[in-house]
Amino acid sequence: MKLPFVVNGHEVELTVAADRRAVDVLREDLALTGTKEGCGTGECGACTILVDGEPRLSCLTLAGRLAGTQVTTIEGMAPGPEALHPLQQAFVDKGAVQCGFCTPGMVITAGEFLARRPRADRQEMAEAISGNLCRCTGYGKILDAMEEGRAPAATLNPCLPAPAGPFAGTFVSTSSVAGRPVYSPKSLSELWAISAENPKAQLIAGGTDLLVWLRNRRIDPPGLIDLGNIDGLRGISESSDAVRVGALTSHAQLLDHPCTNEFFPVLRKALLSLGSPHIRRMGTIGGNIVTASPAGDSLPPLYVLGAEVELSSAAGSRRLPIAGFILGPGTTALAAGEILSAIILPRPPAGLVHHYEKVGLRNALACSVASLAAVLEVNADSVVTSARMAWGSVGPTVERIAAVEAALIGSTLNRETLEKLIPLVRNAIAPIDDVRASGEYRRMVAGNLLLRLLHSDWCCFPDAAQEFSGEEDR
Ligand SMILES: Cc1cc2nc3c(=O)[nH]c(=O)nc-3n(C[C@H](O)[C@H](O)[C@H](O)COP(=O)(O)OP(=O)(O)OC[C@H]3O[C@@H](n4cnc5c(N)ncnc54)[C@H](O)[C@@H]3O)c2cc1C
Ligand code: FES
Ligand code: FES
What we know:
With 474 residues, this protein is of the alpha+beta class. Helix content is 31%, strand content 19%. A hairpin with a 2-residue loop joins β14 and β15. The site of flavin-adenine dinucleotide has 32 residues, from β8, α8, α13 and β16.
């Protein structure tokens, strides 16, 4: 395919195989080797570039997604070949570089963040770089450099076109070989026609799962159908009784939308724990649902919120409750030629307790070992009048335990009540052993997660929260 884009202020046009990754095109075709590949699976951030000013992991970006964009790599941040950007200089001055492998991705991520949030505090800065791993310097010095490298937003804006760079004028490369085709429909009608002609081609949305599977050779589809250019699949619209979320809405877009905070705090908290800022910007809610991982963070909240999925094909649309859509790990009720087009969330009544907690192996970039989403109605006497609870990562699909919900209704929400319910939870589930945790540990954590209800940010019962000692084994 022809791939015209602007990189560091220079127009380039390449002819590349459509399924190549942006990191390969930048490094191999354009010799922009400042962009590093560490993990190749979205976990280290070393490959971070800016696409139209937004951080993107170039190892999880199809090269075709660069067409018509403005790309900034680390080579484009410095004002000239002999000078450093103020933030780069701060990294040097503060000793924030040792082997230097993480530094390009770290500086790009930090530079974009500080341009937007020049007065951010240290905690916010740490969150901003939580998708960028450094294995030798230590984050203290990197945060020192970010504090030192603050400057007026204009000078920190890495999107400014770089003057002299590695190219002179327009650069044309035709170095590539043919790969698997990538189709890019611009409308649903184009999508139906392409799907009919290429029934084995795989849909790609954000690519944060799919490009990892391709790299690991877990799948080998004959072609890809990129949903990214179909605008109708994005966005959030509200009616009096429900909110409709387009399947291609990214986790970050959902988090930024006021309705998520107002009506669905349980979903908001879950999405804040998903991956890293980079993954939340790139991954979509639809992709998270269709992947149907027992550890998928959006799923337990969608179960307790009573979400429905809208499935569309050339033949029309149908709706299913989320629990009827997810059939097992990686298995859904999607029929051939169908896509997930939207998620419909009924507006819950005001005043409910919304709670989500995930236990992982670390704070960022952690798949859940076990998680619990809960939406409870509790009256003025602290008695639970309705309860919807869903556990993630403790079975092949999200687990709702009817006996626990039934036992909670009519009970006072306090530690004594919840402690009595722990054995019910542990007996109702049969979690598996895997690389993250043993089944036995998951069983123990799933029960203990109940007690964390008393510690929820959204718990409207401060007295109950005080009863929580925080000593449970997590
Ligand atoms: C480093 C890293 C960390 C991660 N951390 C987490 C985490 O903490 N929690 C978590 O839940 N997930 C996590 N993920 C997984 C992933 O980011 C999410 O599942 C994401 O939401 C997937 O969305 P996507 O748009 O990238 O999907 P893609 O990768 O584009 O697609 C995933 C699957 O869904 C299908 N698909 C996508 N959209 C549609 C649609 N509209 N209709 C039909 N089929 C569709 C694709 O064909 C593919 O089979 C992580 C991934 C990485 C790489
Ligand atoms: S190379 Fe590690 S995130 Fe891309
Ligand atoms: S400086 Fe070596 S990984 Fe960060």
